[in-house]
C-alpha cells in the first residue's frame, strides 16, 4: 500500500510540475526518457463534448528508449489516467501516460 501511495505522489508531482512548466513560462518542457516508454495515439472518448476533454490513449504508435526526448505540448487529466501530449522529433504527436519512466525538464 505504501508503494502505491508513493507512486501516486510521484505521478502527481510530475503532472503538477509539467502543468506549471507548460502553463506558466516561455520555457519548453521536455520529457527525457529513462526507461522504455510507450507513446499512444490520441483518441477522443465517445462521450466527450469537447475535443480537449476525455482524451484517451489509443494504440501504441512507438516506444521511446532511454536517452530519447519528447516535447510536451499539453498535459491531460483524465478520469482513469493522466498524460502528456507530446511531439516527437519526427513531428509525430502522441500521448505518454504519467509514470516513472521519464523525467520532466525545461529549456
Strand and helix layout:
Blueprint: H1 2-23, E1 29-33, E2 37-44, E3 55-64, E4 69-77, E5 82-87, E6 93-97, E7 102-106
Structural commentary:
The structure is a single chain. This protein has 107 residues and is an alpha+beta fold. The chain contains one helix and seven strands. It has a five-stranded antiparallel sheet. The radius of gyration is 13 Å and the shape is globular. The termini are far apart.
Protein traits:
alpha+beta, SH3 type barrels, 107 residues, 5-stranded antiparallel beta sheet, two-stranded antiparallel sheet
Q: Helix fraction?
A: 10-25%
User: How much beta, percentage-wise?
Assistant: 35-45%
Calculate the mean pLDDT score and round it: 79
- In the CATH hierarchy, the third-tier topology is known as SH3 type barrels
Radius of gyration: 13 Å
What best-fitting shape do the alpha-carbon axes yield? globular
Note the total helix count. Answer: 1
Point out poorly predicted stretches. none
Amino acid at each position: 500500500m505504501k508503494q502505491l501511495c508513493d507512486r501516486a505522489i510521484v505521478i502527481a508531482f510530475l503532472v503538477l510540475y509539467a502543468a506549471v512548466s507548460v502553463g506558466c513560462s516561455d520555457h519548453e518542457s521536455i520529457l527525457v526518457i529513462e526507461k522504455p516508454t510507450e507513446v499512444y495515439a490520441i483518441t477522443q472518448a465517445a462521450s466527450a463534448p469537447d475535443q480537449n476533454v476525455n482524451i484517451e490513449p489509443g494504440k501504441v504508435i512507438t516506444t521511446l528508449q532511454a536517452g530519447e526526448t519528447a516535447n510536451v505540448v499539453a498535459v491531460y487529466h483524465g478520469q482513469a489516467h493522466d498524460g502528456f501530449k507530446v511531439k516527437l522529433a519526427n513531428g509525430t504527436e502522441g500521448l505518454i501516460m504519467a509514470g516513472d519512466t521519464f523525467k520532466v525538464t525545461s529549456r
